[in-house]
Amino acid sequence: MALKASQLTVGETHTARIVEDLKRTQIVQYAGASGDYNPLHTDEVFTTKVAGYPSVFAHGMLTMGMTGKMLTDYVGDARLTKYGVRFTSQVWPGDTLEATATVKAVNGDLVELDVSTRNQDGVEVLSGYAEARVDP
Fold it and tell me: What's the predicted TM-score (pTM) here?
């Protein structure tokens, strides 16, 4: 069933688990798909011994992509007209992430959304906005 602007209310939320127990393999696969082989995401020795982090961590764009899929699952394919985010905390191997879209405004067939993705500890790892053109 298609999302309809007439059925949405300001403050309404849609939440989905976008990854459970993020694996290092998924991070490395994303490095390959994106071409971003920054050693902070792929080289445990470099990340811990040289950079001083506790482990490799996920690309911000991986989190953005998974959150974007939640949005298109909610509003429908080819419906997003705007989507922007800010990365607010690192995503580590083993993290479970849930993304939430909150209806901020409904203007005709345009829906404005606030977007937030949080880890299993409730720490926000991504915040942002989206706009979608939906059925009236």
Answer: 0.95
